[in-house]
Design a protein that fits this description.
CATH class of one domain in chain C: Alpha Beta
Number of strands of chain B: 0
Distance between the termini of chain B: 35 Å
Largest sheet of chain C: 6 strands, mixed
Structural class of chain C: alpha/beta
Helix content of chain B: over 70%
CATH architecture of chain B: Up-down Bundle
Number of domains of chain B: 1
Largest interface: A-C, 24 and 30 residues
Shape of chain B: elongated
Radius of gyration of chain B: 19 Å
Number of helices of chain B: 9
Order of helices and strands of chain C: EEEHEEHEHHHHEHEHEEHH
CATH superfamily of one domain in chain C: P-loop containing nucleotide triphosphate hydrolases
Strand content of chain B: under 5%
Distance between the termini of chain C: 36 Å
Largest sheet of chain B: none
CATH superfamily of chain B: Phosphate transport system protein phou homolog 2, domain 2
Oligomer: heterotrimer
CATH class of chain B: Mainly Alpha
Chains: A mainly alpha (292), B mainly alpha (226), C alpha/beta (252)
Order of helices and strands of chain B: HHHHHHHHH
Number of helices of chain C: 10
Strand order of the largest sheet of chain C: 6-7-8-3-9-10
Radius of gyration of chain C: 18 Å
CATH topology of one domain in chain C: Rossmann fold
CATH architecture of one domain in chain C: 3-Layer(aba) Sandwich
Number of strands of chain C: 10
Strand content of chain C: 25-35%
């Protein structure tokens, strides 16, 4: 059989066009990301020095540093994860390992997905209503962490669930076949194998939480508080909120412009560092349970 | 040891047992001839069944090994060689039984002089040695010993060729032993076949250990191999 | 030889799917029984009857009798299922060592069942690794992760893991299908060694493997047991045309 030459040419041309378009788009996205980073670095790096990182803000937030905001963000990220990680992982374990297939399980999964789509300002209002007012925590690190934790919860639940689902069923069966109970099997076999992927969920959650402004708006964030919090019942500053105020509602917006870029730069760097750390952590555990 | 190895070991043990049984049959048939021992001859005829059942068993074992293990290379050659050796041994067993049958056909002792003159005892000795040596060659992987079969078979052929004249001389000299002389003639014809069977077995041994196919080559080439 | 396992008219349904259609079969003690047949013929499902692994799949219904040493294992109390599973070891298609050290993998079954005597555990692990023909290869790295072993070694480790709690039956679900020929050979030799002490049932897609390792072979097709006989008989002169077609590769 002979095939028409023209068909071959048409195939090649079609391919070239299609691949060319996708290539341009994907390079474009990367370029955009670098553009943003470049902009922030260019504007912000000049401001950042040791004093900027370690000093309290002064002169109506036009001078001094952002130390309390950095620490506040770290507190909030740590606090929210302390809440969201165990709760989310346990919920994920329940959904994937224990819940019987049926309408109830489907409903729970659907609601978890919906929760992930709720705008963050709603979480903020909810947190204020429940933690700040109803439970009487006041505007505090505790209330803020719990609110951020709620926001992170669906991410942790879903990634945990996916991580557990990807553990080959024969691992469970092998453990049952040796007389292992369900709980023992999950603890000793399933979780260690799923851990790297669960940690991926943690990374995503940390990234999400550390950049959020709306949920902390009413629950913890202090407008200007040039000292470190003394307890979890205190208010604190936080980088995203600090950035928001000095760029929108400060006393001298123009004068604090460099401070704003510096803050943005620090926030980006912190998010990157946390991501990097979590990735290293995941790779460490990932190597331990590497499949062949 | 792998499963196949243990199966092959059992197969080898079986064929060697059969070999010994056949050698024994041949020996007893000879004793029955020289001593004119009818009971012993009966025993040899009776024992032929055992040889046959060995053949059946080894054939079936080879078949199973082919079906279950798909042997290759040296394993394959061993099973193939064993099947053919088994076949040849069964025929030698038949020959022993035939000799015993001829002894039973005789109505008087065989005259010693007839046995001497026709050289049947000499032939018998060579045939026995040959078959015993094929076993040794197989057992000790001695292909040189196996190769001696081709020359030794020729001695048997010569005795066989001369047998007709010698038997006629016997008939003239010992008219009372006409029947026995003819029986000896038949035995010689049978014993000549032992040489051919041993030669076939030797070829299989060489094939197994050296993977050389000797069959249907010209005689000169065979000798050149030595 | 006594029958270690026996099924009498066993039917199994997954929801609407009739996976096993009245299987009656007796498996002799201390021998290897191979189950062959095309994918989806029910052979793996049948294998999983014996340690009640099918129970874990929702909407499964089983009727008929499954006897182990004469006792119907589907009539026992649910509290005895763990004891049943201890008696029935299982090895899977893909090597699946736990994310633990080599030593702890073998010790897992002992620990899970409440054994805490460390010297006993050490002895048992060593004994079992010897049994699985793995000791010489791993004795210097017992504390290393099981994932550092090659695929074939991992599978022998999984066999050792199953042997450690001294079951009397071992179920193997295509134990060598993910391995290279050399490792496969080692697993087959191991199976041959083990059958003097254990009753082994092996599901395999590899007919030659069934021939090499098993004493009896059952041919499954569309949820039915077409033929069950001595392996020699099945491979040299099967009684049923379907069996003949399958083992000669002239299927369908």
């Amino acid at each position: 059989m002979t095939f028409p030459e023209s068909n071959e040419r048409r195939k090649k041309l079609g391919q070239a066009v299609m691949f060319g378009v996708s290539r341009v788009i994907s390079y474009g996205i990367v370029a955009l990301l670098f553009l943003i980073l470049f902009f922030i670095v260019k504007q912000g790096i000049g401001v950042v020095n040791w004093e900027f990182l370690t000093a309290m803000p002064t002169d109506g937030m036009t001078k001094g540093g952002i130390y309390p905001a950095i620490m506040g963000t770290l507190y909030l990220v740590a606090g929210s994860m302390l809440f969201a990680f165990p709760v989310g992982v346990m919920a994920g374990i329940y959904v994937n390992e224990f819940a019987k297939a049926g309408p109830m399980k489907r409903f729970v999964k659907m609601m978890t997905n919906n929760l992930a789509g709720v705008p963050s300002i709603i979480f903020g209002l909810f947190g204020m209503a429940l933690f700040v007012n109803q439970m009487g925590f006041g505007a505090s690190i505790l209330a803020g962490s719990l609110t951020l934790g709620l926001l992170a919860l669906p991410i942790v639940i879903r990634t945990t669930e996916e991580a557990l689902k990807s553990v080959d069923d024969t691992f469970r069966q092998a453990s049952y076949a040796l007389g292992g109970s369900k709980l023992y099997t999950i603890r000793k076999v399933v979780l260690p194998i799923a851990l790297p992927n669960i940690l991926t969920g943690l990374i995503l959650a940390v990234g999400r939480v550390s950049g959020e402004t709306a949920p902390i708006l009413f629950t913890v964030a202090a407008y200007f508080l040039p000292k470190l919090p003394g307890s979890i019942m205190d208010q604190c500053m936080a980088l995203p909120y600090h950035l928001y105020v000095i760029s929108t509602s400060g006393t001298q917006i123009e004068a604090s412009r460099p401070m704003a870029y510096g803050t943005a730069f620090v926030l980006v760097v912190i998010v990157l560092i946390v991501n990097l750390l979590a990735t290293l952590l995941r790779n460490y555990f990932g190597n331990k349970v590497k499949m062949n | 040891m792998t499963h196949l190895d243990s199966e092959l070991k059992m197969l080898k043990a079986d064929i060697i047992e059969m070999w010994r049984l056949v050698i024994n049959q041949l020996d007893k048939a000879k004793d029955a001839l020289t001593n004119f021992d009818r009971d012993l001859a009966e025993e040899v005829v009776e024992n032929e069944k055992r040889v046959n059942s060995y053949e059946l068993k080894i054939d079936r074992d080879c078949e199973n090994i082919f079906a279950l293990f798909q042997p290759v290379a040296t394993d394959l050659r061993l099973v193939l060689a064993t099947m053919k050796i088994c076949n040849n041994l069964e025929r030698i067993g038949d020959i022993a039984a035939s000799v015993a049958d001829f002894v039973l056909d005789a109505d008087t002792d065989f005259n010693k002089s007839i046995l001497e003159h026709t050289k049947i005892l000499e032939m018998y000795a060579i045939a026995n040695e040959m078959i015993a040596d094929t076993l040794e060659a197989f057992d000790k992987e001695d292909t040189r010993l196996a190769r001696t079969m081709f020359k030794r078979d020729k001695i048997l052929d010569k005795i066989d060729e001369a047998a007709l004249d010698r038997v006629m001389e016997c008939i003239q000299n010992y008219p009372e032993q006409v029947r026995n002389s003819l029986l000896v003639m038949s035995m010689i014809r049978k014993l000549e076949r032992v040489g051919d069977q041993s030669k076939n077995i030797a070829e299989e041994i060489i094939f197994y250990f050296e993977a050389k196919v000797l069959k249907h080559k010209k005689k000169k080439q065979k000798e050149g191999d030595e | 030889m006594a029958n270690k396992l026996e099924t009498i008219d066993v039917h199994l349904h997954y929801g609407d799917f009739h996976a096993l259609k009245g299987i009656t079969m007796a498996i002799p003690e201390n021998s290897v029984t191979a189950l062959i047949g095309p994918s989806g013929c029910g052979k793996s499902t049948y294998l999983r009857l014996f340690n009640r692994m099918n129970d874990l799949i929702p909407f499964t219904r089983i009727t008929g009798q499954v006897l182990l040493d004469g006792e119907d294992i589907y009539q026992i109390k649910s509290s005895k299922i763990d004891a049943l599973r201890r008696n029935v070891g299982m090895v899977f298609q893909k090597p699946n060592p736990f994310p633990k050290s080599i030593f702890e993998n073998v010790a897992y079954g002992l620990r899970v069942n409440g054994i805490t005597d460390n010297s006993f555990i050490e002895n048992q692990v060593e004994k079992t690794l010897h049994q699985a023909a793995l000791w010489d290869e791993v004795k210097d790295k017992l504390k290393k992760s099981a994932f550092e072993l090659s695929g074939g070694q991992q599978q022998r480790l999984c066999i050792a893991r199953a042997l450690a709690i001294e079951p009397s039956i071992i179920l193997m679900d295509e134990p060598a299908s993910a391995l290279d020929p050399l490792s496969t050979g080692k697993i087959e030799d191991l199976i041959f060694e083990l059958k003097s002490k254990y009753t082994i049932i092996i599901v395999t897609h590899n007919m030659q493997q069934a021939g090499r390792v098993s004493d009896h072979t059952g041919f499954f097709y569309l949820g039915e047991l077409i033929e069950f006989d001595k392996t020699k008989k099945i491979f040299t002169n099967p009684a049923k045309q379907e069996t003949e077609n399958y083992i000669t590769g002239r299927f369908g």
